Amino acid sequence: MIFIDNLHSNSKFDWVKNMSQQLTIALSKGRIFDETLPMLAQAGIVPNENPETSRKLIIDTNHQDIRVVIVRASDVPTYVQYGAADFGIAGKDVLIEHGGSGLYQPIDLKIAQCRMMVAVRQGFDYRKASQPGCRLRIATKYPHIAREHFASKGVHVDIIKLYGSMELAPLVGLSDAIVDLVSTGNTLKANHLEAVEHIADISSRLIVNKASLKLKYNLIQPIIETFKQAVAASS
Ligand code: ATP
Ligand code: PRP
């Protein structure tokens, strides 16, 4: 309730409130929205609608000055970078791929945890196929991450950009391997694939527009503090 206290009792907040527009939070629906809700609630922010059932892209909250915009997970950094949202929550996968420029990234929220992996068809001789100097066809939603990973191994790659269902690509001969996220491993298993290389541990981060942090400091800083406390309490 730190944030609610600030809303009502902090005179600095009143000053900023007079000066500033609304506070806009960019979230993707699904796992990030679901896992963020309890943290927002601890900051005293409760969205008025569930984006899974509403077609609205701008969702009001219990505070008239705070709203949530619902965007694709991979678009969250773009909205925050350009200031269309003051802050948002994005996976490290999305942030690495985006480049993270112009974004302040104060907290690893430790939500939506998974691993970025290379995976192949069960039985595929990846060790042999990924020797330095070899050439591999890689299907992925993450071309920059994949390119860097294989460049560091000295393996040549042809990258095939996909937008989902990466696991299908090796099964139908579109690629030799995929670079994708793995959590339980159930999707790989169900499609007779196996993870063969770990690229990075992934979780979601709070990202803040740098200008918003300065101009709306008294609004944003209590939220950052509350999120920090929520992460500390859950770890
Ligand atoms: P887009 O709509 O842009 O294609 P998406 O479908 O990947 O994005 P989500 O599936 O909601 O969006 O994933 C959002 C974030 O959650 C990802 O960027 C990643 O950081 C994390 N994530 C993805 N898959 C998993 C998973 N299976 N388990 C845990 N976290 C995951
Ligand atoms: C992600 C990822 C894998 C799956 C891995 O897809 O792209 O397909 O999760 O999770 P698992 O190891 O627990 O099976 P998601 O569920 O986000 O679906 P998407 O294809 O819409 O991105």
Ligands present: adenosine-5'-triphosphate, 1-O-pyrophosphono-5-O-phosphono-alpha-D-ribofuranose
Helices, by number, come to 11
Number of strands: 11
Helix-strand sequence: HHEHEEHEHEEHEHEHEHEEHH
| Helix-strand category | alpha/beta
Low-confidence stretches: 1-20
Relative helix content: 25-40%
Shape assignment: elongated
Total domain count: 2
Distance between termini? 20 Å
Average of pLDDT? 91
How does CATH name the architecture of the largest domain?
3-Layer(aba) Sandwich
Beta-strand portion reads 25-35%
The major sheet is characterized as:
6 strands, mixed
CATH superfamily of the largest domain: Periplasmic binding protein-like II
As a whole number of angstroms, the C-alpha radius of gyration is 20 Å
Overview of this structure, please?
With 235 residues, the chain is of the alpha/beta class. It folds into 2 domains: 4-112 and 203-234, D-Maltodextrin-Binding Protein, domain 2 (3-Layer(aba) Sandwich), CATH 3.40.190; 114-201, D-Maltodextrin-Binding Protein, domain 2 (3-Layer(aba) Sandwich). 38% of the residues lie in helices and 28% in strands. It has helices at 2-9, 11-19, 31-42, 76-81, 92-98, 126-129, 143-153, 168-171, 186-190, 210-215, 217-234, and strands at 23-27, 58-60, 66-70, 87-91, 103-108, 114-121, 135-140, 156-161, 177-182, 193-202, 204-209. The strands form 2 sheets. Strands 2-3-1-4-11-5 form a 6-stranded mixed beta sheet. β7, α7 (143-153) and β8 (156-161) form a beta-alpha-beta unit. α1 packs antiparallel against α11 (217-234). The longest helix is centred in the C-terminal third of the chain and has 18 residues, at 217-234. It is elongated, with a radius of gyration of 20 Å. The two termini are 20 Å apart. Mean pLDDT is 91; it is low at 1-20. The structure holds adenosine-5'-triphosphate (ATP) and 1-O-pyrophosphono-5-O-phosphono-alpha-D-ribofuranose (PRP). Residues 28, 30-32, 72-74, 91, 93-94, 112-114, 181, 183, 202, 204 line the site of adenosine-5'-triphosphate.
